[in-house]
Q: What sequence folds into this?
C-alpha cells in the first residue's frame, strides 16, 4: 500500500534562493538539493529564515533571486498553486487546516487538482489507514480538532496531493512529546515508502531522527551543512540546538 | 391578529428580495473579506436590464431575468478583474474601488435609461389568493419561491460541489488553498460573478414591486446591507434570516408609523446590532494570510 506518488522521482535543486521583505534580507542565497527518496532537514532558531525559505520555494512569498529545478523542469517561474502539479506537497507552519470544513473535505481538497473519483477515494482510505483518528473524525469540522489531530490532517491533506516531495514546516510545533513521537513515526514510514522529505524544524532531535542530510540556518544563511549523523555529533550543534 | 398576519405576509416577499441582496454581500465578503459597495448598484442595473428585456424586447419575464443575470454576472467579473491587482497590495483601495464602480454604474444607468425611471407591471395577472382571510399576491409567492430556490441552489453549490468547497477553502485560508492548487483569483472572480447574479435576481424580482430608477440601488442596498449585518455578515443562512427580518420589520413599520417607517426600521436594527454586534449567525470566516 502506498500513499504517495513517489514512483517517478527527480531531484529538487535550489540555487541562490533569496528573500527580502521591504529592504530587509530574510534569506540570503540559500542552496540545497533533495535527491529522490532523500530526506533533508533545515534547522535553526526562530527568525533564522527557515519558513521564508520554504515559502519562497513554494512561491508563496516573492523571491528576490534564485533558481528552483525539479529534474529537467525549471520551476522558478511556476506559480504557487501549480507547484502541487509538479509533485510538491506542502504542510504549512501552524497547520492551516480549513477550520470550517469537515475533516474529509479538507482531505479531498488536497486532491483539488484531480477529479474526485474512485482513485481519489481509494487514496483517502489510505490516508485514513495512516491516521485512523482522522477516519473517526471525518465528519467533524477541522477547527474542532486538537492541535495534534490538525497536524495529522495537514499532513494527510498534503499527501492527498499525491506528492513526490513533501515539504513540512515545523510539524512538531506546539505538540506534546508523545505526539511529536507519532509525527516522527509517520515521517519515517513515508520515508520508507520512498517519498522525499524536506523538513524545517526547530526540534533538531526530531529532524536528525528523520533526515539523512541537514542544513543549519542562522540569520538567513547556511551556517553549517552535512549529514545528519555528523551534525548531531558536532559540539556546537549539540550545545545550541540539542541543548546537550 | 388578521392585520398582523397580513403585515407579516406583505413583508415576506420584500424580505426575500433583501435576503437575495444580503446573500450576495455575504458571499463576496466571506470569500474575499471584501464588502462590495457596488453590489446595490449592480442590483439596480439588474432591475433595469431585466425590465428592458421584459418590456422593450418583450421577452418572457423569466428569460429577461436570465439575460439580466448573465449581463450583471459579467459586470461582476469585470469589477473583480480590474480590482484584483489591489488585493494583496492595498485592500482599502480595493474597497474604495468598489464604491467607484458603484458610481460608474449609476452614471451609466442615467446615460442609458435616463433619469425618469419606470414602473414595471407584474408578469402574473391572476387575482390575489385568499388564504384564511389574508390576501396573498401571486407575484409575492413567485418572488419567495424564486428566492428560496436561489438559497437552496447556493447552499448546494457551497456544500456539495468541489468548486464550492474550494471557494470556502479560499475564504478560510488563502495560503493553504493555494498550496493544494486552488486558483484564488479565479475563485474570487466566481464569487463576484455569483454575487452579481444574485443582485440581478433581486433587482429583477423587485422591479414589479418598487419603482425602478437609478437610485433603486440605494434603497435596496441599505436594507440588504442591514439584512446581511443582522444575520451575521458572511453567513448565508444569516442573510436569509436577516433579509426576512428586515422585510417584515419594514412592512410592520410602514403600516404603523407611515412617514417614520424607515426611521423605526433602522432604530430597531441599530438596537439589535448593539445587543449582538456579530449578528444572529455571526462568525469570523475570513483569514487573510
A:
Amino acid at each position: 500500500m502506498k500513499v504517495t506518488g513517489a514512483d517517478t522521482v527527480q531531484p529538487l535543486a535550489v540555487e541562490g534562493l533569496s528573500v527580502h521583505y521591504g529592504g530587509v534580507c530574510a534569506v540570503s542565497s540559500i542552496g540545497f538539493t533533495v535527491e529522490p527518496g532523500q530526506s533533508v532537514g533545515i534547522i535553526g532558531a526562530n527568525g533564522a529564515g527557515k519558513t521564508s525559505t520554504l515559502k519562497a520555494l513554494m512561491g508563496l512569498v516573492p523571491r528576490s533571486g534564485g533558481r528552483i529545478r525539479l529534474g529537467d523542469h525549471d520551476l522558478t517561474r511556476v506559480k504557487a498553486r501549480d507547484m502541487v502539479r509538479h509533485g510538491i506537497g506542502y504542510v504549512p507552519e501552524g497547520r492551516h487546516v480549513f477550520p470550517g470544513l469537515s475533516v474529509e473535505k479538507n482531505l479531498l481538497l488536497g486532491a483539488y487538482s484531480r477529479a474526485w473519483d474512485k482513485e481519489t477515494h481509494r487514496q483517502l482510505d489510505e490516508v485514513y489507514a495512516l491516521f485512523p483518528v482522522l477516519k473517526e473524525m471525518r465528519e467533524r469540522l477541522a477547527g474542532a480538532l486538537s492541535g495534534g489531530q490538525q497536524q495529522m490532517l495537514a499532513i494527510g491533506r498534503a499527501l492527498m496531493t499525491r506528492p513526490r516531495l513533501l515539504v513540512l514546516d515545523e510539524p512538531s510545533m506546539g505538540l506534546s512529546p508523545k505526539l511529536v513521537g507519532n509525527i516522527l513515526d509517520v515521517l519515517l514510514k513515508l520515508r520508507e515508502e520512498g517519498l522525499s522529505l524536506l523538513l524545517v524544524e526547530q526540534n533538531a532531535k526530531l529532524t536528525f531522527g528523520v533526515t539523512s542530510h541537514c542544513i543549519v540556518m542562522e540569520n538567513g544563511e547556511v551556517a553549517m551543512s552535512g549529514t545528519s549523523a555528523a551534525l548531531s555529533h558536532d559540539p556546537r550543534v549539540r550545545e545550541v540546538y540539542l541543548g546537550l | 391578529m388578521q392585520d398582523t398576519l397580513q403585515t407579516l405576509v406583505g413583508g415576506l416577499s420584500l424580505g426575500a428580495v433583501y435576503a437575495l441582496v444580503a446573500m450576495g454581500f455575504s458571499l463576496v465578503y466571506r470569500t474575499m473579506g471584501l464588502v462590495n459597495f457596488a453590489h446595490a448598484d449592480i442590483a439596480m442595473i439588474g432591475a433595469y436590464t431585466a425590465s428592458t428585456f421584459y418590456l422593450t424586447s418583450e421577452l418572457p419575464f423569466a428569460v429577461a431575468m436570465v439575460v439580466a443575470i448573465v449581463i450583471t454576472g459579467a459586470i461582476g467579473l469585470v469589477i473583480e478583474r480590474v480590482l484584483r491587482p489591489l488585493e494583496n497590495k492595498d485592500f482599502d483601495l480595493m474597497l474604495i474601488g468598489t464604491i467607484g464602480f458603484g458610481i460608474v454604474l449609476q452614471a451609466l444607468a442615467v446615460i442609458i435609461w435616463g433619469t425618469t425611471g419606470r414602473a414595471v407591471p407584474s408578469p402574473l395577472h391572476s387575482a390575489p389568493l385568499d388564504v384564511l382571510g389574508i390576501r396573498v399576491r401571486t407575484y409575492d409567492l413567485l418572488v419567495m419561491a424564486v428566492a428560496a430556490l436561489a438559497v437552496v441552489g447556493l447552499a448546494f453549490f457551497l456544500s456539495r460541489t468541489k468548486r464550492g468547497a474550494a471557494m470556502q477553502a479560499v475564504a478560510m485560508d488563502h495560503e493553504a488553498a493555494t498550496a493544494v492548487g486552488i486558483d484564488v483569483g479565479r475563485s474570487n472572480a466566481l464569487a463576484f460573478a455569483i454575487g452579481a447574479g444574485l443582485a440581478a435576481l433581486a433587482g429583477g424580482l423587485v422591479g414589479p414591486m418598487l419603482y425602478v430608477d437609478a437610485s433603486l440601488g440605494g434603497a435596496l442596498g441599505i436594507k440588504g446591507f442591514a439584512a446581511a449585518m443582522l444575520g451575521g455578515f458572511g453567513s448565508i443562512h444569516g442573510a436569509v434570516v436577516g433579509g426576512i427580518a428586515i422585510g417584515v420589520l419594514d412592512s410592520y413599520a410602514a403600516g404603523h408609523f407611515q412617514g417614520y417607517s424607515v426611521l423605526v426600521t433602522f432604530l430597531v436594527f441599530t438596537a439589535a446590532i448593539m445587543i449582538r454586534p456579530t449578528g444572529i449567525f455571526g462568525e469570523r470566516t475570513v483569514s487573510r494570510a
